[in-house]
Amino acid sequence: MASTAQAAPDIPDKSLFRIGEVSRLTGTKAFVLRYWESEFPALQPVKSPTGQRLYRREDIETVFEIKRLLYEEGFTIAGARKHLAERNGSIGGNAGTGAESGSRAVAEITAPTRREPASRSYRKFLLDLHEELRAVLTLLERE
């Protein structure tokens, strides 16, 4: 954890970072960051309307943590994923499926018991809402 604590002050004081900036800040190649996005549910940068990945400060801290677990602690991808899921309060990283997942997400948004799962759920909710609104806008523009 020392490397995560040391790296955090080096993060510039702004809210969103492009993948190239995150790559330079963390010393991690962009293709590795994209791969980690597919392997770690905790790492979910938002996408701009042009499709660029935009990482928040929390995402950069998660990248530092993943890097520490994999490279310094010797975790496997699966082990690091499980470790992060346990740290974030998820059970085994299982997000659930179907209505169960949706009702859990709503419950986490309305009555969060832990900050990180609610934040992740709320972010997914907002991204889904954003996509739906863009689709409606596209339909309206066609008329």
Describe what this molecule looks like in 3D.
Helices cover 64% and strands 6% of the residues. It is mainly alpha-helical. The chain has a three-stranded antiparallel β-sheet with strand order 1-3-2. The chain is globular.
Please give the structural blueprint.
Layout: H1 2-7, E1 16-18, H2 19-26, H3 30-39, E2 46-47, E3 53-56, H4 57-72, H5 77-87, H6 98-110, H7 115-142
Antiparallel strand pairs: 1-3, 2-3
Compressed to H and E, one letter per element, the order equals HEHHEEHHHH
Radius of gyration based on Cα positions: 17 Å
Query: What does the largest sheet look like?
Result: 3 strands, antiparallel
Question: Uncertain regions: pLDDT < 50 for 5+ in a row?
Answer: 1-7, 91-117
Distance between the termini: 55 Å
CATH structural architecture of the largest domain: Orthogonal Bundle
Mean pLDDT: 75
What structural class do helix, strand and pairing data support? mainly alpha
The global form is: globular
Highest-level CATH class of the largest domain: Mainly Alpha
Strand runs, count: 3
What helical percentage do the residues reach?
55-70%
Q: Any idea how many domains?
A: 2
Order of adjacent strands in the largest pleated sheet: 1-3-2
